[in-house]
Design brief:
Helices cover about 30% and strands about 35% of the residues. With about 190 residues, it is of the alpha+beta class. The structure holds succinic acid.
């Protein structure tokens, strides 16, 4: 089993005293905005790289057969493109539940694609969390994604939505591109 991070996130109270908070999304939060937001803007953060290194026991896999979803890994030379949302702190009740499988809210500097920057929050599932799977070859990651499913659906649908959302933003991510090639090879395309 893995740590449920809801109570840890709620005890951090990060930005909860503010009336509005920017949240940076880099995975399902780019394409599944099932929460109220005031506005959203394409954005990026520096010093982090997106990796399919987090296990999903609750959305795209099960405790017995976890799927793989993205988290961020510190890398001073890297940047990660995604979507920033301006939300009210009440929205964290929903988001903390959605991201409960190992993700903690961290403070980050968000750079908007159209100019300007702000401090905000991002959910990161660090290497210390119990659901963390870590590095594997692109082929191995693709195999696990192709085989996994959970209460939120097929793991490969999570992957496809993310790859499509990045293309729609005009962004490329070599980690995602390589896994997509492996998934295509597995499907015989
Ligand atoms: C995010 O999208 O920002 C966090 C990871 C996920 O929910 O896929």
């Amino acid at each position: 089993m893995s740590t449920n991070t809801i109570s840890i996130n709620q005890s951090l109270h990060r930005f909860d005293g503010h009336r509005e908070v920017w949240l940076f999304g880099y995975g399902s939060l780019i394409w599944k905005a099932d929460f109220d937001f005031i506005e959203r803007r394409p954005a990026r953060i520096h010093g982090w790289t997106r990796r399919f290194w987090q296990g999903s026991h609750d959305h795209r896999g099960t405790p017995e057969a976890p799927g793989r979803v993205v988290t961020l890994i510190a890398d001073a030379a890297a940047h990660c493109a995604g979507m920033a949302y301006l939300i009210t702190p009440e929205v964290f009740d929903h988001l903390d539940h959605r991201e409960k499988n190992g993700y903690l809210r961290e403070i980050v500097n968000i750079e908007f694609s159209q100019g300007g920057s702000t401090q905000g929050l991002v959910y990161i599932a660090g290497p210390g969390n119990e659901a963390f799977l870590g590095a594997a070859s692109d082929a191995e990651i693709a195999r696990q994604i192709a085989q996994s499913k959970g209460p939120s659906g097929l793991n490969r649908d999570y992957f496809a939505h993310l790859a499509d959302a990045l293309r729609a933003l005009g962004e490329s991510d070599s980690h995602i591109d390589r896994i997509e090639q492996e998934l295509l090879a597995l499907s015989g395309a």
